[in-house]
Amino acid sequence: xxxxxxxxxxxPALRNQLANGLRRAGRDVTARANAEGWSALVEAQGxxxxxxxxxxxxxxxxxxxxxxxxxxxxxxxxxxxxDASGNFLATDHDGSPLSAASPAELAAMLSAxxxxxxxxxxxxxxxxxxxxxxxxxxxxxETEWVSRLSGSTPSMKRLLDTIGVVAPTDSTVLIQxxxxxxxxxxxxxxxxxxxxxxMPLIEVHCGAIPPNLMESELFGHEKGAFTGAxxxxxxxxxxxxGGTLFLDEIxxxxxxxxxxxxxxxxxxxxxxxxxxHAVKVDLRVIAATNRDLKEEVRAGRFRLDLxxxxxxxxxxxxxxxxxxxxxxELVAQITAGLARKGIAQAxxxxxxxxxxxxxxxxxxVRELENMIERLLLLYPHGQVPPEELRRQLGExxxxxxxxxxxxxxxxxxxTPAPGGAEMTLRELEEMHIRRVLRNCGGNKTRAAQVxxxxxxxxxxxxxxxxxxxxxxxxxxxxxxxxxxxxESCRG
Length: 491
Hints:
Layout (H helix, E strand, L loop, with lengths): L4 E4 L3 H13 L4 E4 L5 H8 L3 E5 L7 H11 L4 E7 L5 E5 L4 E4 L2 H18 L6 H8 L9 H4 L6 H13 L6 E4 L6 H10 L8 E5 L5 H9 E2 L11 E2 L1 H4 L4 E5 L6 H13 L1 E2 L8 E2 L3 E6 L3 H6 L5 H7 L2 E4 L10 H13 L10 H9 L5 H15 L7 H11 L7 H4 L17 H15 L4 H8 L3 H11 L16 H8 L2
């Protein structure tokens, strides 16, 4: 039996042509110009197909398609939009596009796609059935990336116990910890143990998106909203609708975007660039940072209201040096994972494991993984001479010195590497430049005078070291008095 079609397109010409084409293919079509009441209509039709245009005044077709997939089990859903060539593009829930030069051709292609699904028995399951089919959450604990988060030390046990309580809720989570501790893995674990596990987990690295593109990437834009916007583009917040939005390195987000993100988190409504109407999104937010956000608030680089909005549940991921007793277990899990990649699995001696436990691991678990892979490639049987192990640890280390680790996302005062690895002259120079800039409140002219160099040379050295101007700017005014910040951030 051919499934009926619910067609929601504002443009009357396109709506009528598609409806007529689908009817000629033998399908019962209900055509409407607006999205109001669409969910009741789809539920009433049972196993049907939903086709939604991108010109709706009271809804977003991409979100309608995704929500329809959650609402009904046996449903096909397509979002209609023009492509860069002026053709008609239909994208289904899996992202598989159909492109046609005319509405009649598009109707024929859509009907053929529905015929194929019906003949092959590809009626898709509801989210609950999809989760059961995936074996979640039981199967989650068996995956390699989850096993690497395990640990027997009290700090890791407390962390994992907290996740067990928090994950099934929709509470916003802020994950803090040094680079390489696995904050992204924790976010994935929380998502896959939540009720949203059958929906997308969208990861956004806030430091990797240019500031001028950030708003478009997060909230999307309409066709023609700015130069180069040749097509409508849903943002990453829309892509995460019904699922989880993971904002990695949230401390890198520019202040103007912090204001706009806060509005979305508070209201659940966002407005794509160039749009005349706002769009409602349903998402859970997990944020992560290797910065001290309380200090960023005091320095005026992070909004206090956004900090409070994100800091509903705060998780602190311990550095590897603070849970050294977990290293033998982690080494066993890493070697087992490398064996699946074709690297010989071997057992390290007690002396090697003890040396690994005594090392400071400024790069945390990520550095440990790289070190184990290197050692297994050089010594397939795991018999690493002590002097060679010291050399490998010394060559792979970066002693950031006092305060340097904090500037690079690690903990201040990291322990020097075994073997007495010293800082290079360049590293000492960069550390001194940072100290002088902070003491001068970010004033480049005064800092250059203290350093005995000209301002141009200082700018070149800052650029070479990857220093950001914002690191050294004097604290901006915050929305509350200093005493209020200190009181709020205490503890």
